[in-house]
Amino acid sequence: MATDTPQDVSMESSPPAPPANNEPMYGGYSRFEIELEFVQSLANPFYLNHLASQKLLTQPSFVAYLAYLQYWAKPPYLKYLIYPGPTLKHLELLQQERFRQDIMSPDLVQKLVEDEMKAAVQWHRE
């Protein structure tokens, strides 16, 4: 599996191993680093809107890749996420076709931003 490039990954693929010194590199980065960077970007509602505007969320191969990325919700991968709450929430929502369509709406993007700000304020109060 180590020879897979990110675009070749399917749902049947196993997740990459956490960082190791002997892992193959793609453009100077390991598969683990590339997938971590991408999955963390899903915490940003504006990025989700961008993916939708580029029609990526309608492509079956991209939707399959999003399903594959659900391994980030489990140990040992979970500990590498900087913002696990919104990252995993959005990854879960992206599994739904309706959400993949609705994220085109600026109103939904704004609501997600506001919800995340409220959650951050609430977390700091507790």
Automatic annotation (TrEMBL):
Annotated spans, Disordered: 1-24
Chief location bin: nucleus
Keyword Transcription regulation: yes
Record's compositionally biased regions (Polar residues): 1-10
UniProt family annotation: Belongs to the Mediator complex subunit 31 family.
Subcellular location field: Nucleus
Known function: Component of the Mediator complex, a coactivator involved in the regulated transcription of nearly all RNA polymerase II-dependent genes. Mediator functions as a bridge to convey information from gene-specific regulatory proteins to the basal RNA polymerase II transcription machinery. Mediator is recruited to promoters by direct interactions with regulatory proteins and serves as a scaffold for the assembly of a functional preinitiation complex with RNA polymerase II and the general transcription factors.
GO cellular component: mediator complex
Source superkingdom: Eukaryota
Subunit structure: Component of the Mediator complex.
GO annotation, biological process: regulation of DNA-templated transcription
Protein name: Mediator of RNA polymerase II transcription subunit 31
MF (Gene Ontology): transcription coregulator activity
Keywords: Activator, Nucleus, Transcription, Transcription regulation
PANTHER family: MEDIATOR OF RNA POLYMERASE II TRANSCRIPTION SUBUNIT 31 (PTHR13186)
